[in-house]
Amino acid sequence: MKRVLSGIQSSGKLTIGNYIGALKNYVKLQDTHECFFSIVDLHAITVPQKPEELKEQTEAVAALYFASGVDPNKSSVFVQSHVPAHAELGWIMTTLSYMGEFERMTQFKDKSRKQDSIGVGLFTYPGLMAADILLYNADLVPVGDDQKQHLELTRDLANRFNQRFGECLKIPEPYIPEVGARIMSLDDGSNKMSKSNPNPNSYIAMLDEPDVLRKKIKRSTTDSGRDVLFDPVNKPEISNLMTIYSYCSTLSIKEIEQEYEGKGYGPFKKDLAEHVVATLEPIQQRYKEIRSSGELSKYLKQGAEQAADVANETLREIKEKMGFVLPY
Ligand code: AQP
Questions:
Q1: Which residues are involved in binding L-tryptophan (predicted)?
Q2: Which end of the chain is more exposed for a tag (fewer CB within 10 A), N or C?
């Protein structure tokens, strides 16, 4: 069985982008792969986080994994900071990396543009991400388009390590879903929908109340036309809404075009809102049950133990190959 590693940052409220681009795939993958899914809180702190919010967000992200259908008996779900090997190998990876490699990362360029002062952690983020993946000798890493570049760097670092110190690390492959890999912001079709966007109307949060969801979708930006046509270049906003529609219903993009031919944006948005509500409401219900049952800490403890077993063994091998004196 091939091994999969992926994670989501606890840097805000999970969006429908995280659901479509990550969680939905996790649920499918766990039936056919050995899965390690992480809540990457060490990555979240590469931009400032308020302590009480970080704690709540980390627990909320974890609970949403399970509420979305990730099964603790099939997948190992863990909080990144519960497995200290991540931070340790992250450091080692930065010592194998070159400044130019990190400087080229478009996510660093995008995120640093939004900060008044740029933290070093934001810059060295790809080193930690490489560690996250390589610790588990993952075969596959489900990533959205935006993370492809980081995975490419991870592969380079693994190859570099193997050449310099001897074969040890597996070279991971990307697993990219064919469509809908990138859900765009509700207020700007050229921007990715992001949980850390300061404008809550730019994203559909998985835990938004139904009426909030309806309002956000009604107010979402569209072009001045009225044809519900899939044309990401000329009509990026309506095309994005159609992608969300398609993921939250049984209709294909073609069928959506046929369904709303000549009807305009109003009825389309109204129906879209109901499909989104119908998709998220059962998840919200399960989320509430998980949060109030006290099961979360049990699942996360079990996940951290399973993850640490694998991660500590890889780290030990890496350190041995590099010439570290191992603990006596
Ligand atoms: N808009 C999106 N469309 C499709 N997939 C998305 N993902 C995130 N946003 C979208 C996928 O979710 C996984 C986890 O992402 P992350 O939280 O680790 O980092 P991110 O990609 O930077 O996500 P955000 O929401 O934009 O977070 P912030 O705002 O904190 O940077 C990844 O698989 C990602 O592709």
A1: 132
A2: C
Domain range for 227 is 200-288
Q: How many domains, in total, are found in the chain?
A: 2
Question: Do the beta carbons of residue 128 and residue 86 sit within 8 Å?
Answer: yes
Question: pTM for the complete prediction?
Answer: 0.94
Q: Verify that 35 and 143 share a domain, yes or no.
A: yes
* Tens-binned pLDDT, residue by residue, of the chain (328 aa): 999 999 999 999 999 999 998 999 899 999 999 999 999 999 999 999 999 999 999 999 999 999 999 999 999 999 999 999 999 999 999 999 999 999 999 989 988 888 788 899 999 999 999 999 999 999 999 877 778 899 999 999 999 999 999 999 999 999 876 555 689 999 999 999 999 899 999 999 999 999 999 999 999 999 999 999 999 999 999 999 999 999 999 999 999 999 999 999 999 999 999 999 999 999 999 999 999 999 999 999 999 999 999 999 999 999 999 999 998 8
Residue 205's nearest CA partner among 184, 47, 213 is 213
Residues 218 and 305 placed together within one structural domain of the fold:
no
Choosing from 13, 111, 216, 269, the catalytic residue is: 111
Q: Which two tokens stand for residue 8?
A: 């989501």
Which atom belonging to ligand 1 lies closest to the Cα atom of 192? 1
Q: Is 116 strand, coil or helix? A: coil
Known catalytic residue: 216?
no
CATH number of the domain enclosing 271: 1.10.240.10
Which ligand 1 atom is nearest residue 180's CA? Answer: 4
Max Cα–Cα distance, the chain, nearest Å: 75
Question: What is the Å distance from ligand 1's center to 196 Cα?
Answer: 9
Q: Catalytic: which of 24, 192, 235, 269? A: 192
CA 196 to ligand 1: nearest atom: 29
Residues 151, 237 within the same domain: no
Q: Mutation test of ligand 1: which of 8, 13, 18 has the most ligand atoms closer than 8 Å to its C-beta?
A: 18
The interface pTM score, or ipTM, of the predicted complex is: 0.95
